[in-house]
Amino acid sequence: MIDVYKDMNTLTKLNIFSKFPLEHLEHLLKCCGAYYKFYDKNQIVFLQGNKVDSLCIIISGSVSIEKIDILGNNTYMLDIYEGNFFGEQIVLDKPSISPYTYRCSSDCKILCLPFHKKYSTDNCKNTCACRLLFRENLLNEIVENNMLLINKLEILSKKNIREKIMTFLAYESEKYSSNKVKIPFSKSKFAEYLGVNRSSLMRELSNMKNEGIIELNNKTFTIL
């Protein structure tokens, strides 16, 4: 069982627990039977098509979201980081099947909240104040997460590599209000994210640099 006092200051900084008084957060974690799980890099948390048994909040590390199509091809969607979550189906409805594979892209510490386990055992109804506040926060965060996937779909819909790159950079530039963008992954993973070949990506980046469209320093892009 999680020591709710040990990491309380860290947890209250997460958006999903914003506006929570400490006593309400403690109550919520105890009520839903929260616990930590530790994963090694490349270890799978949920496999696509398997049952979701907990809401998972990333405390440290990063998790890759992957989608396997009907032909067995594995598509990298995006990485999520500290403070992000997955498995939200268990809070909003009955436990369901994971639509994606969630694979740790680094060593991870994950807070697991198996809500349905204790709904009827801790004298805490679904409508208690802390659960209602948590659901409100969760819905707000789900909207943000959905925007990431919508942005990814728009990038994939672009006709050529340059359009994909510029669309990605435009989103990141707007997000951080800067013409300097640091990508959070390697060039190989960037190519996977854009749905293109790595050598084709590197060639196009070189062309864009030579044409004075961008400057490139390792993982940092400057839009000129």
Structure described in brief:
The chain is α+β, with helices and mostly antiparallel strands. It is 38% helix and 22% strand.
Keywords:
cNMP-bd_dom_sf, Arc Repressor Mutant, subunit A, 7 helices, alpha+beta, DNA binding, 11 strands, Jelly Rolls, DNA-binding, 224 residues, globular, 4-stranded antiparallel sheet, 38% helix
CATH superfamily (homologous) name of the largest domain? Jelly Rolls
| CATH architect. name of the largest domain | Sandwich
pLDDT < 50 runs, ≥5 residues: 118-122
CATH topology name of the largest domain, in short, is: Jelly Rolls
Helix content: 25-40%
CATH class category name of the largest domain: Mainly Beta
Tell me the domain tally. 2
Which percent range describes the beta-strand content?
15-25%
Q: What's the average pLDDT?
A: 84
Please tally the β strands and state the result. Answer: 11
The SSE string, one letter per element, is HHEEEEEEHEEHHEHHEE
Verbal overview:
The chain has 224 residues and is of the alpha+beta class. The longest helix has 29 residues, at 129-157. Helix 4 runs antiparallel to helix 5. The strands form 3 sheets. Strands 1-8-3-6 form a 4-stranded antiparallel beta sheet. Strands 2-7-4-5 form a 4-stranded antiparallel beta sheet. A 3-stranded antiparallel beta sheet has the order 9-11-10. The model is unreliable at 118-122 (pLDDT under 50). The N and C termini lie far apart (52 Å). The radius of gyration is 20 Å and the shape is globular. It has 2 domains: 7-116 and 125-149, Jelly Rolls; 159-223, Orthogonal Bundle (Arc Repressor Mutant, subunit A). The protein is built from 7 helices and 11 strands.
